[in-house]
């Protein structure tokens, strides 16, 4: 219990600082872009063909974009302190509502992609770990290197070409049915599995060469029984840590995959907000992503504490 409490305090502080820093960087980078922010927002609201200087000036006054940047930033911080993310400068809807609507699509896609990646990586990684240097290990390593070196949009285009255009098994883009999630989820899964399969393989190889595994086999257990009884928890610790780090890949992957497949998630929302200079949406999304990243890392740390056999030994003592 003490080890868990020792993790929570620093991690919660780190979560708040990470989210604040990420949102602040978004604010600074967006305002550093060249061009008139009010004009971009006006174009997103009324259309490029109907934008006038009068419309842009009205939006600039209404939204307070004519105020100094530090004053705008201070206003946003005061709102955040009360749990208010503000409203979208384009749609006029609350930022929380925009993030909640698009976030549910992203969470579903991310969960499916993450699950598919480990359905691919776990059996392959364990099999390669039991036969390092074998033909399956060499083939898997070659495919993992190729997938890791390949940009996500190229993997997605390949899947669209095969399964949507050639075989016509799945829809190529949009979101109307569950089938529309398969290709974007598989694109994410292949990118994730390319890295995790090697982590799993190396963890299995390291655990199988440990002394306690040899001792278990001396006592009469088979290699599989020794691994199931003693090795799984030890091998799972680096895998759990790496699974949390993959969240950063997912954030990058969402932007590319959701744009490629016209999927209505946070990635598409962020792209549209960046084009329109919708600063409250960008900062709100940055804040939420930072908090999610910290929460995932905290969950991984707690999982490692629970999986570590030494924790059981200390508790028993």
Task: Kindly describe this structure.
α5 (95-130) crosses α8. This protein has helices at 2-32, 37-46, 53-62, 69-81, 95-130, 135-149, 152-166, 182-208, 211-218, 223-260, 266-276, 279-307, 309-316. Helix content is 79%, strand content 0%. The chain is mainly α and 317 residues long. It has a domain at 95-276: Orthogonal Bundle (MetI-like fold).
List the helices and strands and how they pair.
Blueprint: H1 2-32, H2 37-46, H3 53-62, H4 69-81, H5 95-130, H6 135-149, H7 152-166, H8 182-208, H9 211-218, H10 223-260, H11 266-276, H12 279-307, H13 309-316
Helix pairs in contact: 1-12, 2-3, 5-8, 5-11, 5-12, 6-8, 7-8, 7-10, 8-10, 9-10, 10-11, 10-12, 11-12
Provide key terms for this protein.
317 residues, mainly alpha, MetI-like fold, 13 helices
Which class do the helix and strand fractions yield? mainly alpha
What is the CATH-assigned architecture of the domain at 95-276? Orthogonal Bundle
Give the amount of beta strand, in percent: under 5%
Cα gyration radius (Å): 24 Å
Task: Find the count of extended strands (DSSP E, 2+ residues).
Answer: 0
The shape is: globular
- Tell me roughly what share of residues is in helical segments: over 70%
What is the count of DSSP helices, taking H or I runs of 4+ residues?
A: 13
**Which spans of ≥5 residues are poorly predicted at pLDDT below 50?**
313-317
> What is the straight-line distance between the termini?
14 Å
CATH class of the domain at 95-276: Mainly Alpha
Largest sheet composition: none
What is the succession of H and E elements?
A: HHHHHHHHHHHHH
């Amino acid at each position: 219990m003490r080890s868990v409490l020792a993790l929570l305090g620093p991690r919660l502080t780190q979560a708040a600082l990470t989210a604040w820093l990420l949102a602040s960087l978004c604010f600074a980078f967006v305002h550093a872009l060249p061009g008139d922010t009010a004009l971009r927002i006006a174009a997103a609201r009324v259309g490029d063909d109907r934008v006038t200087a009068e419309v842009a000036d009205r939006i600039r006054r209404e939204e307070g974009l004519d105020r100094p940047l530090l004053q705008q930033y201070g206003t946003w911080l005061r709102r955040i302190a009360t749990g208010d993310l503000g409203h979208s400068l384009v749609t006029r809807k609350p930022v929380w509502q925009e993030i909640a609507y698009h976030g549910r699509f992203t969470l579903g896609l991310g969960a499916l992609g993450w699950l598919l990646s480990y359905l691919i990586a776990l059996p392959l990684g364990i099999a390669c770990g039991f036969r390092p240097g074998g033909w399956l290990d060499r083939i898997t390593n070659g495919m993992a290197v190729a997938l890791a070196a390949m940009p996500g949009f190229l993997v997605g285009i390949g899947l669209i070409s095969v399964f949507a255009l050639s075989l016509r098994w799945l829809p190529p883009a949009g979101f109307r049915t569950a089938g529309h999630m398969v290709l974007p989820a598989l694109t994410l899964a292949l990118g994730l599995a390319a890295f995790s399969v090697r982590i799993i393989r190396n963890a299995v190889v390291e655990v199988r060469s440990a002394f306690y595994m040899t001792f278990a086999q001396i006592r009469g257990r088979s290699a599989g029984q020794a691994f199931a009884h003693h090795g799984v928890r030890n091998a799972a610790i680096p895998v759990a840590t790496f699974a949390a780090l993959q969240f950063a890949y997912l954030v990058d992957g969402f932007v590319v995959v959701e744009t490629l497949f016209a999927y209505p998630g946070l990635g598409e929302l962020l792209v549209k907000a960046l084009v329109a200079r919708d600063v409250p949406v960008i900062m709100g999304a940055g804040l939420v992503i930072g908090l999610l990243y910290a929460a995932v890392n905290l969950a991984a740390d707690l999982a490692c504490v629970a999986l570590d056999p030494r924790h059981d030994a200390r508790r028993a003592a």
